[in-house]
Amino acid sequence: MSKIRSKNTKPEMALRKALFAKGFRYRVNDNKLPGKPDIVLPKYKTVIFLHGCFWHRHEGCKYAYTPKTNTGFWVDKITSNKERDRINLQKLTVLGWNVITVWECEIRHEYKHDITPLIDRITTELLAYSPDYPKRVSMKFYEQIEDQVMMVAEDIIEYRVTPKQ
Hints:
The chain has helices spanning 10-21, 71-94, 104-110, 116-129, 133-137; strands at residues 27-28, 39-41, 46-51, 98-103. It is of the alpha+beta class.
């Protein structure tokens, strides 16, 4: 287990690179917050956890299996990981943070090809959490009135140049 990295893993680096390319700025592994989130986006008051499917028991995932040897240890270990995740989620929610969980298999499967759908999903969630979300996406629709020309700009105003005296 000493060879297992907790930060800067391939999936985490792929996600961070894609978020940065999309224009999001973030902090990494902020130990001031419960659970030491993988990615912290203070502007959106949002944290992103990138969970390994094996270590956090992603239900229904082929990577979330129980090893055949020392089964009792692994069941206890993974159960305690899930309980710690639940507690950290509650603490962050109470502090007013929005939490997005991304699973390793979402990136593992996608980063061989393209993680654009995942980044689009995260972007949508971040914009929905943003305090000025309604301002940002508000649109004003205009009715078209029959047989009238719609003016988009102001009327043309003619300026007179007065000669210098």
